Request: fold
Amino acid sequence: MSMSRTEVAPAWSNSRSGNPRPILEITGLAVDYGYGEDRVHALRGVDLTLHEGEVLGLAGESGCGKSTLVYAATRLLPPPGLISAGQVLYYPEDGGAPVDVLRRPESELRAARWQDTAIVFQGAMNSLNPVYRIGRQITDAIAAHRPESTRAQREDRARELLSMVGIAPDRISSYPHQLSGGMRQRVMIAMALALEPRVLIMDEPTTALDVVMQRQIVEQIVELRDRMGFAVIFITHDVSLLIEVADRIAIMYAGEIVEHGPAQAMYREPRHPYTLGLLNSFPPLHGPRQELTGIPGSPPDLQALPTGCAYHPRCPFAMAKCVTDIPVLAATAVAGEPDRRVACWLNEDEALLPDALHKV
Ligand code: SF4
Reply:
């Protein structure tokens, strides 16, 4: 099961230079669904930092906690979700002291949404109101946060936003049903960018679109990021898409981050068997053809997690220790990887890493 991956030449640049400041710092975030004995631990002590201007990818199978993580971190978690522990620090643009989003008054949060952090929800393109023209829907969103603006200013801004996302400004008077799925999704991105947020969260933004449209939209998001400087959290189950778009990737499994690091490094040499399984489950957009093998079995029942490493029933490299002891997110076994973290016992000792996880 050896693997040799070559550097992917992205269709667009995903590298950011310098040493950007943190903008969102998540520490020990835990979320339960339900109460008492029936509760499910959907998120189990997640630590994650988003830096200014970067694209951070969150990947993993359905139900691994990706959406729960961002909705909890933005206080948009619907019931019966309950944040049971953690801290989410937001660093203001003026360099002032960070504020804990989880303890911020609701009135402050409402003002900060769209302005500091905007979200494009899963299936967002279907949430446009079918009986209003798209221009009205964009200007209404602007008016809610900028009531002092004039109607003419809002309409000018709506045209500018449409143009930014590649839609002709004269489509401002179109109804949603007159636009393709890709165009409707672009309208949602335009609305999210209306107030120039510092953080844009995209929850599976291209899942319902065909591959060509997916690619165009992802390219556009990165181009806008380069132009406007916002940071992006990009959630998807398609890790091959993230390799191209993200600066860093966090892989989630059973409510935890199991690997975290620079996108290209994780593509060349994944250090966690689950990351390897995900990479082998999706065809790369570039590079040589590779055999797709998938991951055997299904994600665990969060109410009855396996003992030890939650991935052990599906892991081809599981050892006796994996069945009894829970691995924690720590440095990889390989020297010179200070910006990578992995939760896998194979990384206790470089000699334990199989070829598939360690290209020599
Ligand atoms: Fe596999 Fe063990 Fe690593 Fe878990 S800790 S991923 S079971 S090798």
